[in-house]
Amino acid sequence: MFFYKTLLLAAWASAFVQATPLDFKNLLPRAGTPSETGTNNGFYYSYYTDGGSTATYTNLAGGGYSVNWGTGGNLVAGKGYNPGSGHAISYTANYKPNGNSYLSVYGWTTGPLVEYYILEDLGTYNPASGLTHKGTVTSDGGTYDIYLGVRTNEPSIQGTATFNQYWSIRQAKRTSGTVTCQNHFNAWAALGLKMGAFNYQIVATEAYFSSGSSTVTVG
After folding, report:
1. End-to-end CA, the chain
2. Active site residue: 36, 120, 154, 206, which one?
3. What is the mean pLDDT of residues 41-53?
4. What pLDDT digit, counting tens, does each position of 121-167 carry?
5. This prediction's pTM
6. How far does CA 138 lie from the centroid of its chain?
7. How far apart are CA 152 and CA 164, in angstroms?
8. Is 36 a catalytic residue?
9. pLDDT of residue 31
10. Which of 102, 99, 118 has its CA nearest to residue 206?
11. By three-state DSSP, how is residue 79 classified?
């Protein structure tokens, strides 16, 4: 279990490297909630911080959580399911980033190893600039651009590996609604973007050298 959690934290830590190189040597641990995973009120939750900023994560009633973070470092927080699936996920969020941040349905599959994002809202950085555009999908009242990324020798839930990232990035950003995951998975498959067995799947708040707050309720 410790080894698995170590790999999982390493995978989280790589999430924003695609955006900007992360210099871990210059990060100093600060006060806040330590990284952890578990279950709460019938939902799976995961919280990772590299310690580069003062950040607090709190599980709320039902599928709710809140996270507050200060400038510096990388964090990923979310609540959802383990394993994930193609189900429809409803969520509401009070999402207030200042800088580089994502609000998304986020997860992994294995066999093949894939990291995926269904991006609903974001801060100041759009990851599309570093990805390959593959097409579009219309789902849940909006249009999403589909992108492919490749991570080479990067941390993952299976250790250091080379794997694909699949992205659906909503054109008209929002902070509440329903995400019918299967619509995205079907669209990806039609473009040759194959997935494997589901690992965890969360409605995630992710932040990289920014500040802000996010309160999210899943379900």
Report:
1. 28
2. 206
3. 94
4. 999 999 999 999 999 999 999 999 999 999 999 989 999 999 999 99
5. 0.88
6. 21
7. 9
8. no
9. 53
10. 102
11. strand
